[in-house]
Amino acid sequence: MFQDYSIDDYKKACYIILRPDLTPEYFIRHFGMSRYEYSICQQRLKELQKFYGIEYHFEENRIHWTVTDEKQFQQHYKGMWSFYNRHRRNLTNRSELVRGLYIARKILLANDHTDLDAVSETMVFSRSNLRNAIKLCRTFLQSYNIRLENAPHYGVYPMGNEWNIRRCLMAIYSLLDVNVIPEEDYPEIAEGLSNPHYPVLREKVYEALLHNSCNYSQAQVRRLTYYIFFQHLRIRQGRIFSGFENIHPAIIGYVRNSERLMKISADITRSCFGGEAFSEQEILSVAMMLFEMYDEPEEFCAFVEATFPEEANDLYRMVDGYLLRSYGFSITGLYSSILRTTLYRLIIHHQMGLLSEHAGHSESRAQMISDYPLVMLLYQNIQQLLAERYGNEAAGICCAPLCELIAFYIQGMDYAAPRLRIGITARSDIYASEMIRNLLLAKLNPRYYSSVECCTYVDMLENIPEARKKYDLILCDERLSNDPLFLSYAEIRNDLNNINAYLQMLRDLFGNDLKKEDIRTQELKLSDGWAEELLAESRAFPVAAFTVEEIQKKTICVNDCLVLLLTQQTAPHSLLQFGKLKSRLRVGDKRVSRYLLLSGRVNAQNIRIINLLLYELIQDPLFWATLTSCPCPETLNNQINRLLK
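Below the sequence we write its predicted structure tokens.
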């Protein structure tokens, strides 16, 4: 049965279909599997393939698939992109999650009490084996303020606010996507949320939003469509919405009095269900969904600042203070207003009692977060800050949009790179150097040079090393020596338009931070006590002493690499150590086969460079191999200079 598989199994099934050029090595590394786990994965995917109308082929150098049932394949293919992107990096991959959500769904959709013994029999599992799944089910429901009432001899019954129950069903069916995960128990729901029926409902929602000049993302429209679907389903089942629970009265009053939100809600319900009349309370519930997602930032921010001024200021200072303390910069300009809007959405979620929801209002972490080790560490730290502030671990889930914003800001930050001192001289013509200088100044990017000077005494530059120290590059009408410091006019004349590219590659981006002796590669053997072993390894690093707990907090897993970042704004210098692990190591639900340790200075002047360096090392196997064979600053500069304009 479909409950026997994990979310991870379904993600792998989608990933292969979405990647036609897939190799076994890349697939294994992407999902952090061992060879044995890969063989088990093949068996499980072979069992699932008939549901998608395809056949998987696992060859020595290639993984591909062929269609066996075109109609069945087309029905499921369109939902695979959104499913994989939605769930590629969030929640847990354990099979208990699917079983727990299956039980939760059974309980919420039942007309009466649910006998868990009967449910366990339908799942072909003993009650004892399902203990973890039932525990997860209770935790998931509790995050939506839904509790289970036990009635002896009858079973359990869900008790909770109708709006919360609908949102919980939205989350469950977002995870148990009927286009990807086989659905047999509720054919009405399976039909309504699958192709081709769901796109029709979604288009009606789109049209109503466009008619009212709304601006919502695709993910927000999907969530709103899911709510409309379950609203109609629950009304037909006699489950009527009568009011909200745990939502601040000021928010309810604002939404109820908003002519725009109430009109849009009425238009949506009327458009989706052929003019069927909905009560004012039901229209209000849709309006509350619209308000939570917001599409008028200025009006939204004005409401938050007027209603929750202290929380707004405190939350902004908390995030801004963290960035200043840790990395020495603040978000400014346009990004500052976007930051406030993003933080205010957190406040609204808090005041609506939504921060506890598991998977209710979050999408998968953006690639900008998951693929960049430095941003990933920042994400974990802000998660912890939010969890501590709101006393709720799930609150940290909401910080993905916030950290994505910070990631974009870092990529646009200026960086400190030494500018070249250029000297121009000539043997034959006293005016040649001046003409070349004027030509260069018209073409050179100011970021790449600090001065361009004409030099009169050619012999002095050629014969006296001390005279040459004044310049990083000398241009002459003929090459003075084989020293790479010198270039002739002839060497640049035909390529003058690319002089900026040449100067770009000459920059020393890492300066005093990473010298040759600060870059080393070494194979390590780590065990289950990897934190203590990394602590011992880090004692040679140029940073303050850390505890085992601090080492764990500063360690993240990206792809198949264990990354430890010990960063400080003011450190004497940096040290980069990396290499393979002698044996694969399991860290949480990840398997890693290599490691990377970086310690030292990360601040506003170099954070963009360090962020890119870590990304390239983790994501580019060729760069990793090149630096392994030649661990020196030149290798780093060659790679990063090509990417930083």
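Residues 299-411 form one domain.
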